[in-house]
Amino acid sequence: NTEAEKSFSAMCNPSVKIESAGGSIIGRIELNGVTIAGIGQAKQIVLTYNPLKYAFNKGDMVPALTKLTVVNGNFKIVRDSHGKLNLSSLVPTANQKKTTTPVFHGWLIIKDCRAVYRDERGWHPEPRRFELPTEKLNGWIDLRGTDSVKFNLSGLVPEKVKAKGLFNLQTNTYELKIE
Fold it and tell me: Would you state the pLDDT for residue 158?
């Protein structure tokens, strides 16, 4: 687990703890009891990767990853008073191409998770600050692009809500459709 924790901590930036890891299928690893400091924990994260890219990159997992599936997670998402999200370290930016920090460019699949969104900045004039708990969160986030992050998520807040859209990494703007 130490090697997996080091790789994930480098990729996520905050520290990562993993209770156990395993997997019997080539191209798939299951991490159990995953905790990401300051963000939350998941019962399981399944890594899907390209074995040829893994071998070509001499055992560097991050460039070979194609999909992360998060199962039964519990997360907190916070936008601070300056508008910065606590998840910022998980989202690739144009500047990260120039660094040695590994960046995940693939699909993030969310299955039966919980999240609390806390906004310290709020929208002006009202509400100034608010918190939104979400249950039964499911969907996907596409991190393959370098200019934008696309997403399609649904959950209970407390009634069922679907959110689709994209976040532009260059302009720090977003498009959002809520159903």
Answer: 84
| Beta carbons within 8 Å of 87's beta carbon, 6+ residues apart | 39, 77
Tens of pLDDT, residue by residue over 109-136, are 999 999 998 888 776 666 678 888 999 9
Bridge-based pairing state of the strands 65-79 and 107-119: parallel
- Cα-to-chain-centroid distance, residue 60: 19
> Within a 13 Å sphere around the CA of 31, how many CA atoms are in the beta-carbon half?
23
| CA atoms within a 13 Å half-sphere pointing along the CA-CB vector of 25 | 9
Q: How far apart are the first and last CA of the chain?
A: 41
Q: Which residues pair with 141 in a beta bridge?
A: 108, 151
**Cα separation, 137 vs 22, whole angstroms:** 25
- For residue 112, how many other CB atoms are within 10 A of its CB? 14
Average pLDDT, the chain: 84
Residue that is written with structure tokens 């090697």 in the block:
3
Q: Which tens digit of pLDDT belongs to each residue from 47-58?
A: 999 999 988 988
Instruction: Take residue 143 and report the two structure tokens written for it.
Output: 């991190």
